[in-house]
Design a protein that fits this description.
Layout (H helix, E strand, L loop, with lengths): L1 E6 L3 H14 L4 E5 L10 H6 L3 E5 L7 E5 L4 E5 L11 E6 L2 E7 L9 H23 L3 E6 L12 H4 L7 H12 L2 E3 L13 E2 L11 E2 L2 E6 H4 L2 E6 L15 E5 L2
Parallel strand pairs: 1-2, 7-8
Antiparallel strand pairs: 1-14, 2-4, 3-4, 5-6, 6-7, 8-12, 9-12, 10-11, 13-14
Helix pairs in contact: 3-5
This protein binds one DNA strand through loops.
DNA sequence: ATGACTCCCAGTGGGAGA
């Protein structure tokens, strides 16, 4: 079973690239973030024609998530149950016996800001919900744009980024909290080249200079850990004209 | 360097992203 996550930064703009990518990478499940579409504008026909069923949960202008799957998606959940949230950030479903959770974690803007406090509260709620979800669904994959660089090796310039948003100790403690639930960073199950990022700033020729962060992740539950065959970041779409600032992350699980 | 780019909604500018 192949699964992937991609922050597309506007599905309206990126739909042609998404369809091209799916044709080249016919994954079983793909979760999207930052669709930036109200639900009435979601391109169900085009995605259906590509051979995917789709669940979607959006809002105007910001955020918005979707889950594409070859097989039917069951027991769909939108956002974190019990956590009142105006922002469309989570979509979860069971596909082929695997609980798939796609999430667009809050950015947080800056430590100490209201948005940072929202990020911390959201992370608390996510962890509480996933603890229960893992008891119900031992085979679970959490994937998305975490907006957290877990370690200094996930940052192109750890000195410049020290204490900055995505790299604070509070955010990294939350990432470890997810790991303490038994979720494993699939990318780090394998030897990886140094300086692998999933996001590069649009400014400053950051992609050309490979100045980025690894903030998009796929975490698998303990029950799946031994079955993970590979986990990679696909930089190719970042070379497109009008690319998303994020690259897709893929995992292959032997099921 | 409080920037740089891209997206959105707006409407010839500004917020948000990361």
């Amino acid at each position: 079973m192949k699964l992937a996550t991609w922050n597309v930064n506007s599905l309206a703009v990126r739909l042609p690239q998404l369809l091209d990518w799916l044709a080249a990478n016919p994954v079983d499940v793909l979760v999207l973030q930052e669709t930036k579409l109200t639900d009435d504008k979601f391109p169900t026909l085009e995605i259906g024609a590509a051979g995917y069923q789709v669940q979607w949960f959006g809002q105007k202008t910001y955020n918005g998530v979707a889950l594409l799957s070859r097989l039917p998606a069951q027991d769909v959940v939108k956002n974190i149950p019990g956590f009142a949230d105006e922002q469309a950030r989570v979509i979860a479903a069971t596909v082929g016996g695997v609980r798939c959770v796609g999430a667009y974690f809050p950015n947080g803007q800056a430590p100490g800001s209201d948005k940072f406090a929202y990020k911390m509260g959201w992370l608390d709620a996510l962890r509480g919900w996933l603890r229960e979800e893992l008891q119900q669904h031992p085979r679970l994959v959490l994937m998305g744009d975490f907006n957290i660089a877990p370690e200094d090796r996930d940052v192109h310039d750890p000195v410049a980024w020290a204490g900055q948003i995505h790299c604070t100790e509070e955010e990294r403690a939350h990432f470890r909290g997810l790991q303490e639930l038994g979720l494993v960073d699939a990318f780090r199950l394998f030897e990886q080249a140094p300086k692998c990022w999933s996001w590069w700033d649009y400014r400053n020729l950051a992609f050309r200079k490979n100045q980025g962060l690894r903030i998009d992740h796929i975490l698998v539950s303990e029950a799946l850990r031994g079955a993970v065959a590979s986990c990679t970041i696909d930089k190719l779409p970042r070379k497109n004209e009008r690319p998303s600032d994020h690259a897709p992350v893929l995992v292959d699980i032997n099921l």
